[in-house]
Amino acid sequence: MKRSFGVLVGLVVAYVLLVNPLAIPLTVHAQDGDGEEEPPYTGIVVTTQDYSSLRAGPGTQFERLAVIDPAVDMPAIGRSADMGWVQVWYEGETGWIASWLLVWYGDIISLPVDGVSPAPFVRRAGVVGYTTRETPIYIRQLAPDDQVGVLPADTQVEVTGRLGGTQGFYQLQIYYQGQIYWVGSWNIRITEGREVRLLDTSYLYAYGRLIRQLDRDISRSVRTLESIEDRWLRLQAGESVSCTFIPEYATRSSSDSDLLQEPGFAPLVTALDNGIMATNAAISAFEDACARAAEGDTFLSLNDVDRALADIDTARRNLNIARSLLAPYRDRDPVLGTRD
Question: Which of 120, 125, 156, 196 could hold 18 in an S-S bridge, CB 3.0 to 4.6 Å?
Fold first, then answer.
């Protein structure tokens, strides 16, 4: 769908503001140039996962410009400070889409905060902090070659992203005087907002992706284990159990290609896979019992129950091992480096 913006001539209102996740539209809109334009090249592409509203600004209170079909690829050219909205180039015009409707390829946190030539809006910082000492600032990673300056102590900055969790040593992305930089979290005192809500860019690295994926895999597997355990414990107690809902088999989503790059995760993955295999054995036994019940055989032997509960014990032991190994791996993330 091709649209062109009308030109609204009005009063330009200037604010010296920090970022607010709830943007408020003004009556003055950015003017589009005549004719076709090319989107600014960022190397970052987003894909819609569902029907997605394209809006004039980063919020649902802005005008809806279009509804985009699922599975449409578009260049990403900007973002909101809290990564709740992504600015895209769609059929010759710019607009904003809620980030939860998108998947993306590339370092999306490197996109310009507030986007490219956006419609004016009022915003106030979601996460604000102050430097606690003279603070080195880096253009990319906390490495000597990337250092571009030093901020004085007690400088106010806006925090717009992070690399790593929010415990121990991790890195923060800051927005200062219109530019994005990286600093050590130990140099920033957060005074407003919570940095845990900001996008964690560890997904860009195999080690960081594995930490996130394995954490989710372990949590999902534990929930599946608890679900099937409840059914077998009720059968052991002589209760009637419905076969209407059978838990789905547990799976591991962590990438084998990432594991090849980071072979040190092998002990954790072995424990997780063993836990998943034992959990699925208990699910399979319950599924078989339900199939027999559907054919009129509604009785289970004590041996059937004991075998399933033994599988459940094996699963729990292995999942507990996997969970206990995750924290040390997280603490040794090589991307985060060491404190300055």
Answer: 125
